Fold each of these.
Amino acid sequence: MNPRRKKNTRAATLADVGRAAGVSAMAASAALNETRTSARISPETRAKILEAAEKLGYRPNVAARALVKRRMNTIGVSVVWYGSELNVYFIEVLNGIIEAATHFNQNTTVFTFHNWKDDIDRVGAVCDGRIDGMILLAPVYSSELAARLPLHTPFVALHANVEAEGVVNIESDEERGAHDIVEKLVELGHRRIMHISGPRGLLGAERRVRGYRAALLEGGIEPDPDLLISSNFTAIDGKKVMLEWLDAHARPNIPDAIFCANDAAALGVLEALASRGIRVPGDVSLCGFDDTISSRTTVPQLATVRQPLRDMGGKAVDILMQRIEAIHGGGPDFTHSPVVFDTSVILRDSVIPMPSAQQNIAPDLNSR
Amino acid sequence: MNPRRKKNTRAATLADVGRAAGVSAMAASAALNETRTSARISPETRAKILEAAEKLGYRPNVAARALVKRRMNTIGVSVVWYGSELNVYFIEVLNGIIEAATHFNQNTTVFTFHNWKDDIDRVGAVCDGRIDGMILLAPVYSSELAARLPLHTPFVALHANVEAEGVVNIESDEERGAHDIVEKLVELGHRRIMHISGPRGLLGAERRVRGYRAALLEGGIEPDPDLLISSNFTAIDGKKVMLEWLDAHARPNIPDAIFCANDAAALGVLEALASRGIRVPGDVSLCGFDDTISSRTTVPQLATVRQPLRDMGGKAVDILMQRIEAIHGGGPDFTHSPVVFDTSVILRDSVIPMPSAQQNIAPDLNSR
DNA sequence: CTGAAAGCGCTTACAG
DNA sequence: CTGAAAGCGCTTACAG
């Protein structure tokens, strides 16, 4: 256009391709898209078009296509950052989401918020044509706020802490998982079992507390309020509350075992214990929840409850895609009932039988 | 909610807003965007327009806007997954990227590839208007391939392993970092210092090897080829190569200290040593590189070289934004020279003075 | 100061 | 079978 050489090379358009091949832009579109109607393009013409496109490095402009197709081929993921650390839980789920999205030829874009309550409008604001659907990751909001989500965008939630009408939730049997790992600790001879919970009131945190209490009671152990500490699912806070507890209690009173509401908190606890010279698992057994990468990169490796985070992320995409297809017509209908995944206990080096149960064995051998 | 169950709720358009307010779509646009020309909208009209927009839940369609503005307000991040595990290095960098992008009001979309060499075309394919610029994370490709990157999209690389023309690279002084930590080991009395490197040939791996060698030579130690092992930056392979080396060597020949090319490899080495009853740091000192979260969650905590990964991610966004602004006119010019961050040695419990230098001290006291 | 028109790049539906 | 036209939703540039 401009005879003066401009710095920014402009991307080639369909019109450019058509011009180079001596056909109309429309013919180029038909040939490149292999639409039904492209049968009418003669093989030679089509070859010329493909060649021109290749030579010009033609890429269909996604915004233009989206405008007419009303489809961006992109799914959004909304997540809140607590503090400023992206946690590993999120990464595992994102892993599954990206993988599944790629399988459907969809892009994934991540939106981060500070706070579900205040930012729910921003979640809605993002539904402006840039995404075809949205996955809400561990959302916490009121149902009134949830009602403000735009109707024209389909939503799927994962680990939702509140039920929103018409939003399918993907979850795991957290209460069962918590129960099973605490039951295991009891079987191994531990009696004074501490739980470092998530924020009280959140569905996920409460379910884990319920499982913990149930397993204790089944084992004939009366839950000790002094051994139930509330934290917020982060390593930093896990470390903090553990140190505070240790400061307030004499060394002989440390628990036999500690069950943390998630792996991140367990990492913080591990740091706190190490800094006070309390050995894991020699002095206290420790376990987490989630089976994130980090549970395998601690030394000792962390016993935990596995929820198939990656699969759960993938499932969220599957369901979201069904809803998107349904909206765009043609797709089969979808279900509104929550999807519940099983959990399983993963025993690793951080948990050993209560030492008193084997006091004739030298301490060294406990850690192999 | 909707009793009519109108499935296909369509998002409100500017025309809808204009109609509701009794003005043209263009007037609505001017009022809502507060453009210079919007001064001409009377306060009453503007109020009516804002009210109508609010009531209709109007959101400017991003695809339409992008089409005319040639701007998506989205930056892409390209990353290769080795195996199927997203590693912690990536998480830290992504943290910084998302944070900075949010600050500039930009979205971040992550593209994952299997292999830089084969997928470089796919990196280009993604430059189709959906992103305004791209960050390449630790890319490995040939400069010929790099030349195929679309000219119309600005790129910034982080930890690039090959230099591509016109692509600014963000890096850290890895050679210096490796040198400094090995120098420290020498100062502490260690002589037989092993290095478990990254894949030979990769820029980052070579720089660390060079720093290692230089520090040895400065300390009057002739590098021993038997103590230089090549691995691939993963925990799994780090464990494997360490075990192989131990199998091939008699116990008295184990090194005084081991410097791993990254933290992940060091975790694997830690496992390998533990499985053979070799104590860290009692029998051998160990250190990594990167200062990822995992270096703080091992017992003992891992000495390492810190590179400010998060800041580096943020810097990549800063520079990319400059280039994007420059292309869209108006912005200040940008530099093509690489940006080099400082590294620093972080000493932690996994490194102690060479025991022979303090043989009168009981082993227990070494680990506090 | 105002509104009508053109155009971003593409696809779909419709005449010829 | 083919090309010309309309339109997706928005903003910019241009007449009145």
Amino acid sequence: MKNSSLYKGSLNTIIMKLLEEKGRMYGYEITQKVKAITLGELNITEGALYPALHKLEAEGLLEVEVEKVDNRLRKYYKLTEKGNKETVNRLAELEEFIKNMQNIVNPKLSY
Amino acid sequence: MKNSSLYKGSLNTIIMKLLEEKGRMYGYEITQKVKAITLGELNITEGALYPALHKLEAEGLLEVEVEKVDNRLRKYYKLTEKGNKETVNRLAELEEFIKNMQNIVNPKLSY
DNA sequence: AATTTATACATAAGAGTTTTATGTATAAGA
DNA sequence: TCTTATACATAAAACTCTTATGTATAAATT
């Protein structure tokens, strides 16, 4: 688990973006997808993921559908209408954040 | 102060990158420079900055030179040799992080 | 002349997020 | 049979940052 501290604070945005794209996902699926996208670099821990999902649900940004697959429980999460709107904002913030960090790493002459 | 939570965990990297570039800077100068680069979006609070500088110094990554300018105290920080080496690593991590986040926001077909 | 803003440092309490550790349970693979 | 993978969950501790507060000088505004 190489997780540098840089990922701190980005978990909610990651979850919401993946749900926006995929429609619905369950917790374990999210961890595997993130691991795949980051080529194993980012491993979301369960201790971070499940409380985050519960909080987003409590805030009315996600809703859950419980299903039993292969005799195992799955909790599928999807964005609510409110969650969809909020995701737009979060992604805009993320784009700004990335731009700002790139400007710091690779400064334009003039600052 | 709009500081989205995305910036959490990036303060040390920002400080080290700026010092690598500028040679030496004092705390207040760092806050102003970051505000300028991010067009006012990221305002580093003193409660975050000063403890961070002290910690980096305690870790041997920064060293300090105190000077009095216009009858006001300034503490100039610069990277130590150890700090220079560590900065290379932190910047590599930052580049990876940015790439990974971009892959999440703008996914390549195939995941 | 008095008040506010800017410069320049600092720390403590509280909030928020994540890691680490632990727990339960089923299915698949070695 | 034992380990790994799947799938959820929570509590304690660690870490980082915000908010609030404090000191002090200089410059700008009212």
